[in-house]
Design brief:
- The relative contact order is 0.14.
- The protein has 15 helices and 24 strands.
- The chain has 3 domains: about 210 residues, FAD/NAD(P)-binding domain; about 80 residues, Alpha-Beta Plaits (2-Layer Sandwich), CATH 3.30.70; about 80 residues, Glutaredoxin, CATH 3.40.30.120.
- Strands 1, 2, 7, 8, 9, 10, 18 and 19 form an 8-stranded mixed β-sheet that branches. It has a 5-stranded antiparallel β-sheet with strand order 13-14-15-12-16. Strands 22-21-23-24 form a 4-stranded mixed β-sheet, covered by helices on one side.
- The structure holds flavin-adenine dinucleotide.
- Its cofactor is FAD.
Length: about 500
């Protein structure tokens, strides 16, 4: 079937990254179609306990800036279900864990947040957990309410592009769009068919997440354990995560049976446990690969389609949401025709290094988990370091993503970082003022020349003249639609500098 109406953008994949990107593009009034391979988005693997995902600070800030946070705040945070148990357990601990590196925890009381000069207490806190299925339901509902068309049961299986558009084939139907974005996960068809090189390091282990019943549950002690053959984590009543350094020989080669799970569990734990029932199981590996380009002509990649790594440390979803936040407004400006030169290319320039760093973060954790004496020695050193103030602060910075900074040039230390969520004199927060998806110039001292300057960019930059409870020593700042600071001034604003930054990110003035 041939669909004659061309879309501005077709997105392959209604995972969290594709859905959030669709919302970002609709904010700019573009016509967006999401094609999703699966008929039914629901899956036990997206629900507790396996479907729990940790959101880092940049992801929470992105949702806050689009007014999605209240909808996403999960059962885990509102006190029901398994999330309640987890939260209660966390609250009761004498020292509250703030996160971990290869299972080695750092504690909130050791983190020195005063080292982060431009962070204000706000909704992002140190992180939040969400259930994958809940997140996708909220994002899909928002996307549909905004006018995104979502077609399920239609996997993209072919496409071709010209200088003007992309023709996409999915389940026997043909669609036309100006752009195609592959958000179709780690085994991305768009990436494979689109001629993107995908390079990295191969897997050393098969990882398992399993929900089991054990004949002798007390044989295993709860918590994470490194053993001479791998690693296992056990939480009662029967949630198990295991890593076996088998060169990923088992992953996706055979059915996961109770016998196999029992055999691996016995090998990695060294305990004589008996699995009497297997309710749910999946495998994963530590293969760490990244596309060497995120754009080929009119085809782009975002999320797991652009990079894969082990789930250790829980960064993949956050990395993908960061891609979508960064790409959405740039692609929108490109389609509208008001993007400055090179804006779309800055998506790769900014996001590829962030992805590469996360891949290395996951590789470093694997190095620490290998079942050998060298890794145990390294583990002992990390345990010592993570317990120091500077060590805990360093790991918190990396795990929470609070020190993310793009290299945008400019001498002010805030440029390239996430804008602080200022509490403004009118009672609103900066994040709320970014909901429209426009850029924003926040002018604490209401300088008339700054207002005049912003007016020249018409509807692309909004102007807010409002004082703040704590200005962090600033007098004005220009914020991109993704919440990243493009220009900032401490004292009398430099008009030339602000105009230069506005042109660099928002194109020619009207
Ligand atoms: C066990 C485990 C634990 C994890 N824990 C965390 C965590 O705590 N924190 C974190 O940040 N990350 C975590 N991750 C990683 C995170 O789940 C992924 O990085 C995230 O889901 C990526 O989102 P995505 O939208 O890019 O891809 P996906 O979620 O994979 O979505 C891709 C979508 O595309 C669809 N699709 C596939 N092919 C096609 C096609 N040809 N056409 C159309 N649609 C297609 C799929 O059906 C799917 O709906 C974990 C992963 C695992 C496996």
């Amino acid at each position: 079937m041939h669909n004659p109406i061309p879309y501005d953008v077709v997105i392959a994949g209604a995972g969290p990254v594709g859905l959030f990107l669709a919302c970002e593009l609709r904010l700019a009034n573009l016509s967006v179609l999401v094609l999703e391979q699966a008929e039914n988005p629901s899956s036990a693997l997206k629900r507790l306990p396996f479907g729990m995902r940790g959101l880092t600070v940049p992801s929470i800030e992105a949702f806050h800036r689009r007014g999605l946070l209240d909808d996403i705040a999960p059962p885990a945070n509102d006190g029901s279900g398994d999330g309640k148990l987890a939260a209660a357990h966390w609250m009761r601990q004498p020292r509250r864990p703030g996160g971990h590196f290869a299972g080695i925890q750092f504690y909130l009381d050791a983190v020195d947040t005063s080292q982060w000069r431009y962070r204000l207490p706000g909704p992002a806190g140190a992180g939040m957990a969400v259930e994958m299925e809940c997140l996708e339901i909220v994002l899909a509902a928002r996307a549909v309410a905004m006018g995104v068309e979502i077609r399920r049961g239609l996997g993209v299986d072919g496409f071709g592009q010209s200088d003007e558009d992309v023709t996409i084939r999915a389940g026997g139907e043909i669609f036309h769009a100006s752009w195609l974005v592959g958000c179709d996960g780690g085994r991305s068809t768009v990436r494979k068919l689109g001629g993107f090189a995908f390079t990295g390091t191969d897997a050393e282990f098969t990882g398992y997440s399993a929900e089991v019943e054990l004949a002798d549950p007390d044989t295993l002690s709860p918590g994470r354990h490194y053993t001479p053959t791998g690693m296992y984590t056990y939480s009662r009543p029967g949630t198990i995560a295991m890593v076996e350094f088998d060169g990923a020989a088992f992953h996706r080669t055979a059915a996961i049976t109770p016998e196999h799970v029992q055999a691996v569990l016995r090998r990695v734990s060294g305990a004589d446990v008996t699995v009497t029932a297997l309710h749910l199981a999946t495998t994963w590996t530590d293969r760490a690969y990244q596309a060497t380009a995120y754009r080929n002509g009119r085809v782009l990649l975002a999320g797991d389609a652009a990079h894969i790594h082990s789930p250790l440390g829980g960064q993949g979803l956050n990395l993908g949401l960061g891609d979508a936040t960064n790409l959405g407004w740039k692609l929108a400006a490109t389609i509208r025709g008001d993007a400055p030169a090179g804006l779309l290319d800055s998506y790769f320039d900014e996001r590829h290094p962030v992805g590469a760093q996360i891949l290395d973060w996951s590789r470093a954790q694997v190095a620490l988990m290998r079942p050998n004496r060298g890794s145990r020695a390294l583990e002992a050193i990390i345990r010592d370091l993570i317990d120091t103030r500077d060590g805990a602060t360093y790991f918190a910075e990396r795990v929470w993503g609070v020190t993310l900074r793009y290299d945008l040039g400019g001498s002010h230390p805030l440029v390239g970082r996430s804008a602080p969520d200022f509490e403004l004199a009118d009672g609103t927060r900066l994040g709320e003022r970014l909901r429209s998806g426009q850029g924003l110039l926040l002018d604490f001292d209401a300088h008339p020349p700054l207002r005049a300057l912003v007016n020249r960019w018409g509807g692309r930059i909004s102007y807010v003249a409002e004082n703040a409870k704590d200005r962090l020593g600033l007098s004005a700042l220009l914020v991109r639609p993704d919440g990243v600071v493009a220009w900032a001034a401490d004292a009398e604003p430099d008009l030339e500098g602000s105009a230069e930054a506005a042109s660099k990110w928002f194109g020619e003035r009207d």
